Amino acid sequence: MSRFIESIRIANGLIENLSLHQERVNRTLLDYSAGTRIHLEEYIKTHALSDQMVYKCRVIYDLNEIQEVQYIPYQKRVVGSLAIARDNSIEYHHKYANRDHINRLFSNSGADDIIIVKNGCVTDASYANLVFCDGVSWYTSNTPLLKGVRREQLIRDGIIKEAAIREEDICDFSTVRLINAMIPWEEAVEVPVSRIVFPAP
């Protein structure tokens, strides 16, 4: 049976974007026609956590129940370079616990992270959604592997917009930010497009 994860940011004792995480859990269960109802707020406890630290609350569940809840002190990854990884077979519509396919692409890249391109379209980095800046506005691909919670929040707040972004469009932008549930917009890793390595066609 498939297992899924939710990585939820807890900062200053507050659980961030819990309703959006719950929406994604609900969609996953619905897509698999599971009769189960999982309510995240019943399982996440913050009373023993330090208010001075940021935690990744990692919820592991299957179609029947929550299997484990972990609280991991969070450290942001350092990303200074990106490499294009082309793969037309990759699928990651739900936040599966099994990330072997993505990990293989990353391990072969030789860069700090990757930009996964599927059928010519930009999707995601190995652990984050991507947002590109043209000098004025910020755009995220309308073909992500996974619609992340932070991505959804920023779209709803009008900070970023969806757009069709193909591999050949990347050089039209100046920088790219990597965003996920653990990284607030103002703290997002930003990489100049000039630091992206493109493989031979």
UniProtKB/TrEMBL annotation:
Protein name per its UniProtKB record: Aminotransferase class IV
Keywords: Aminotransferase, Transferase
UniProt xrefs under InterPro entries: Aminotrans_IV, Aminotransferase-like, BCAT-like_C, BCAT-like_N
A GO MF term: transaminase activity
Pfam families: Aminotran_4
Organism of provenance: Lentiprolixibacter aurantiacus
